[in-house]
Amino acid sequence: MNYQADRFTALADACVLSSALKRNILLSFAQAEFYRVRWSNKIMDETERTIVKLLQRKEIAEPDKGAKRQRSNMCRAFEEAMVEDFEVLEPSLDGINEKDRHVLAAAIKTCVSVIVTDNLKDFPPEYCAPFDIEPLSADSFFADCISLSPSETMATLRRMRERLKNPEITPEKLVTLCEGEAMLKTASLIHEYKAAL
What we know:
This protein is of the alpha/beta class. It is about 55% helix and about 10% strand.
């Protein structure tokens, strides 16, 4: 484990894990040890259900199997990511919508620094601050990682880009894909450093 892995731990919300692009960037950065990723079975259940819907919209054959395979791959690649025994904390988190309490409870249980979520309205910063937890959008989280270690993150994104061959993703296409998912800070930084991609 390198020095970067000691930096912080982040809990990934289902809304980020459900997007293929965000999931690939998030897990590529975790694999490169820029941070430690965490999630729970409840988060993975929600992720799997959303991936099924996305695959159905794209008319992909056997979407249930595809979603289960993606979940299995994530859990196998990051065996240490699963957070358990946090449910007892949920009832006390009455400042959070009931359907989202499990996310904050899991974050508290595993002492993360960040919740990576695109549902920022569900996690008011003033409510999370006493737990030393900062909710960040995927865009802000990725942009922070890139700003902290531009050359290392670009090398990681290059490996990710080269791994995804169907279809091929050029550096320019990666910028466009990020813009398409409203990750404008990330897109801008990738564009700035794309010579390293």
